Amino acid sequence: MRRAKLNQRLKKLFLAGIILGAAAGILFAVLIAGNISSKKEAAYKEANADLEKKNQELQLQIDKNEAAHNNTEVLAGNEDGWSLTLVNEEHPLASDYVPQEMVEVEIERSVDVRIMEDLQQMLDDAAAEGLSMYVASAYRSYEQQWDVFNATMQDWISQGYQPLDAYAETKKSVAVPGTSEHATGLAVDIIASEYEALDDQQGETAEQQWLMEHCWDYGFILRYPPEKADVTGIIYEPWHYRYVGKEAAKEIHEKNITLEEYIEGD
Ligand SMILES: [Zn+2]
Which DSSP state fits 192? Predict the structure, then answer.
């Protein structure tokens, strides 16, 4: 039991090392997890080296990429365009960004105050239609995103995936810290009360059907639609809604495009 716990802790440390790109941490964890075979250890080390490289690239992207600074500046400002800030793998957000003013839409679920009125109206109108839904996730800090990413990656590893493959699988459904829209305070995950699973079936609920049909009226878009994973880099997420403002939401909805396509088409 203690051994299992220790391994669990080491695994956590190991993954912490991977994601943060802390070379010393990775080696420490791999060497101490002594019960893994030397062959496996070699494979892990190799995977680590690859992941470390990826992380260094990502850190560089976040720290030095002009896009992150531009994004953060635009989002924090009040000029037109703040609601159109594109955050994805190529367009990260500064890891210390915190919305200037946040407000709770539900207990422990905060959003940027600038989207609150429209969001609340959307939720109220849905409720008036007899639908039952709740905000399962809203603003997430860089650290919180890291926790979500780490937990998902551990799930894949416990299913037998190698770290590098687990990392790739995780990335399909969880944004790498620094590249998550949840850090903007403009994105919410809304879940049907009667069907809480985060899978494609969520999209079949009356709640999601209503949201998909009406969200643009309130300035929101279904951010990761089906058939657009190649553009967004994220699989179909029928629960993830992003505020872009009413004008953009209408056009994105009518043209059946993504935020990426909307911005690049400008
Ligand atoms: Zn989400």
Answer: E
Say how many Å lie between the first and final Cα of the chain, rounded: 58
Torsion on CA atoms 222, 224, 228, 231, rounded to nearest 10: 120
CB atoms within 10 A of CB 239: 27
The pTM is what?
0.78
What CA–CA distance (Å, rounded) separates 9 from 202? 33
CB 221 within 8 A of CB 213: no
Q: Compute the distance from residue 103 Cα to the ligand 1 centre, in Å.
A: 18
More confident residue, 266 or 142: 142
Q: Do 106 and 125 lie in a common domain?
A: yes
- Distance (Å) from CA 237 to ligand 1 centroid: 8
pLDDT at 31 over 50: no
Query: Which one is catalytic: 237, 251, 260, 261?
Result: 237
CA distances, 149 to each of 15, 16, 36, 47, 49 (Å): 10, 10, 24, 18, 19
If asked whether residues 90 and 204 sit together in one domain, one would say yes
pLDDT at 37 over 70: no
Same domain, 245 and 193: yes
Beta strand pairing call for 240-243 and 220-222? antiparallel
Domain range for 14 is: 2-63+148-171
Catalytic residue status for 237: yes
* 175 CA distance to ligand 1 middle (Å): 9
Are 108 and 53 in a shared domain? no
- Cα of 238 from ligand 1 centre, angstroms: 9
The reply to whether 116 and 166 lie within a common domain is no
What is the DSSP secondary structure assignment for residue 96, as one 8-state letter?
T
Asked if 111 contacts 105 with a C-beta cutoff of 8 angstroms, the reply is yes
Tokens 């059907």 — which residue?
209
